[in-house]
Specification:
It contains four helices and 14 strands. β10 and β11 form a beta hairpin. It has 284 residues and is mainly β.
């Protein structure tokens, strides 16, 4: 490598009479040996003796060669190679600067609210007349206020009733088979929660519970969780108004929704009648 020695900037500002090999250059050097923090050079040519304070730099031709090599070569060497699991950082940086509409599921509110009125008159003994006003609510609210909380399901019930207080009617039974739950699902978080009257998302064959669940991703496709609550659905085969259930589960899921997606859940639970243990159960 070649080097050139130039007159110090401070001295050149006060002395313009010195002549060099070329404008600003007073000597040319050639590197013959290098070490970690020093180098040995031969003096190729000089216009005057080299003195303390002179500045050493690369000639302009060498600078241009290095610029061309860094710009055009396909075999450039880098001190480190960084790889990314997905996406191109340069492309993503450009996308971030482009205004985009919010995702359709963010703060999306859909649903239905309805009212009904009915009158029931029975004859015979005993005879009675009753009337009631009811309401039905169906909700599909996702990413509420930009968060990862969602409210889904429906509810149907009575707002007012009068008259007979005898045997429950089919309408009473229907009013108690609703599901309405609030859940937290964040792809960037290992935790997920749910409360309300709902099914366990990983095992919808279990009966509806009035309670909640919590799950956490612990390793790869595995999720561990717990659940618990009462069993309010009167259409369940083992319905009992005082029944409570609780337990834990492990879920494995993976694959691709474009090709093949799998989900497998195994769990153990305990059933109670009030405060008395009824029977343990397992599900898969």
């Amino acid at each position: 490598m070649k080097l050139v020695i130039k007159q110090s900037t401070k001295k050149a500002a006060t002395d313009n009479s010195e002549k060099g090999i070329e404008p600003g250059v007073v000597a040319e050097l050639k590197v013959v040996s290098v070490a970690a923090s020093s180098a040995v050079c031969d003096i190729v040519s000089t216009a005057r003796p080299i003195v303390e304070g002179d500045e050493v730099t690369l000639p302009q031709s060498e600078v241009q060669k290095m610029v061309d090599k860094q710009t055009l070569s396909n075999t450039r060497q880098y001190p480190a190679v960084v790889s990314f699991s997905e996406g191109d950082p340069l492309d993503e940086d450009v996308r971030l600067k482009v205004p985009r509409p919010p995702l359709p599921e963010v703060n999306q509110v859909r649903g239905r609210i309805g009212f009904d009125y009915s009158t029931i008159r029975t004859v015979g003994s005993p005879s009675a007349t009753s009337s009631e006003i009811g309401m039905v609510v169906r909700a599909d609210m996702t990413r509420i206020y930009g968060t990862h909380w969602n409210l889904t399901g429906y509810w149907r019930g009575r707002l007012q009733s009068s008259g007979s207080t005898g045997q429950a009617t089919l309408q009473d039974l229907i009013n108690r088979t609703y599901t309405l739950g609030l859940n937290y699902v964040n792809p960037q978080s290992r935790w997920t929660f749910g409360v309300g009257r709902l099914y366990l998302p990983w095992a919808t064959s279990l009966q509806v519970i009035d309670g909640g669940y919590a799950g956490a991703k612990v390793k790869g496709p595995m999720t561990l969780g717990v659940f618990g609550g009462s069993s309010p659905d009167p259409t369940a085969w083992n319905y009992d108004p005082s029944r409570r259930i609780g337990g834990g589960f492990v879920n494995f899921q993976g694959g691709s929704f474009e090709n093949l997606w799998y989900s497998s859940t195994t769990g153990l639970g305990e059933s109670f009648r009030g405060t008395t243990v009824d029977r343990p159960f397992a599900f898969y």
